[in-house]
Amino acid sequence: MLCMEEGPLAQEEFFYCCGAATQLLKFGSLDCWQKDGSNNSSKVLFLIIPGNPGIVCYYKPFMQILHKILNQKYPIWAISHAGHCVPPGDMEMIEDIELQDVFGLNGQIEHKLTFLRKNVPKDIKLVLIGHSIGCHMILEIMKREPELQVLKAVLLFPTIERMAESPQGKLMTPVLCKLRFLMYVPIYFLSFLPESVKASLVRWALQGLHSLDEATVSASLNLFSVDCAANAMYMGSQEMVQVVQRDDSTISRCLDKLIFYYGCNDHWCPITYYEDMKRSFPEGTIHLCQKGIRHAFVLDASVEMAQMLLDWLRTDLAKL
Fold first, then answer.
1. pLDDT (0 to 100) of residue 18
2. Model confidence over 107-163: pLDDT tens digits?
3. Active-site residue identified among 213, 227, 266, 300
4. Residue 67 annotated as catalytic
5. Predicted local distance difference test score (pLDDT) of residue 11
6. Which DSSP string do the residues of the chain spell out, in sequence order?
7. pLDDT at residue 75 in the model
8. Which of 69, 146, 215, 315 fits 60 for a cystine, CB–CB 3.0-4.6 Å?
9. From 220, 295, 300, 302, active-site residue
């Protein structure tokens, strides 16, 4: 396992999970409770499961803010999707593959379950934070591993149903399912550009943001890798086909642990999906954004999202 310190709190780790290169971004470690003498009831790990592309450094500002406002009391981790981040120079993208179709949607879910089984002790409570397709993965994790001690699961801009029917899905389905191989050609040629030129291209593409964090620039450089882009598009093509019907059975069984947050102008999960969810589960904790936050909230709304998340969890954390 390779580690690289990023400031006094953040740590990146690259390792193989199910035989695929995986990146873990960590604020805090699991031994923090031993240092302050905390009892078992306060052992809580926040784990972020990203959207697509599953590049954890996009979430670094959000994690840093959340860790700070929680007074660094709980570790906050984010796990990449298999093969979505460029590994260090002495690592290949794959080693001995242990899971069939690890880069597909089902493989990515099993990849997260394997990580949890191998790296998180069973007595630790979990706050799972899903973003976009990460929300679908969390529902599947809770379905397949009901023994997990999930304190809360926060589902942000949840793509958990009818993805191909959404406005963005209608636009992207032909690209991801039929034309994605054509996209590899420009990515292949762009991959040979110097890193400084790639970074300049990212800054130009994101120049409309009020502020551009360097973590976002660094994260975006992964998209110039043909392997990473191919894995992200391959998973995306499966999302369009497989994420169709909402899993009402799992939602109903776990409703008291779930918090949903829908965007008011989200082209991946339009407001009609929010309205359907409210009608189906009127007693659920289901919010509609009133702040105009975009689906990719990590680009410019990390502060607002971290504060809202703390407000939602304050009572549950206080009971520990």
1. 94
2. 999 999 999 999 999 999 999 999 999 999 999 999 999 999 999 999 999 999 999
3. 266
4. no
5. 93
6. -EEEEETTTEEEEEEEETTEEEEEEEES-TTHHHHHT--GGG-EEEEEE--SS--GGGGHHHHHHHHHHTTT-S-EEEEPPTT-SPPPTT--SBSS--STTTTSHHHHHHHHHHHHHHHS-TTSEEEEEEETHHHHHHHHHHHH-TTS-EEEEEEES---S-TTTSHHHHHHHHHHHTSHHHHHHHHHHHTTS-HHHHHHHHHHHTTTSSS--HHHHHHHGGGG-HHHHHHHHHHHHHHHHH--S--HHHHHHTGGGEEEEE-TT-SSS-HHHHHHHHHH-TTSEEEE-SS---SSGGGT-HHHHHHHHHHHHHHHHHT-
7. 96
8. 215
9. 295
Is 96 one of the catalytic residues?
A: no
Is there a catalytic annotation at residue 132?
yes
Catalytic residue among 67, 80, 111, 132: 132
pTM (predicted TM-score): 0.93
- Here the tokens at position 159 are 């793509």
